[in-house]
Amino acid sequence: MNELKVFTIKKNIHEDNAKVAETTRNDLKKLDTYLINIMSSPGSGKTTTLVSTIKALKDEMKIGVMEADVDSDVDAKAVQEAGAKAIQLHTGGLCHLDATMTKQGIHELGVEELDLVFLENIGNLICPAGYDTGAMKNVAILSVPEGDDKPLKYPKIFGKVDVLIVNKIDAMEHFDFRMDLLEERVRKLNKDIVIFPISAKTGEGVGEWADWIREELKKWG
Question: Could you tell me the pTM of the whole model?
Answer without folding.
Answer: 0.91
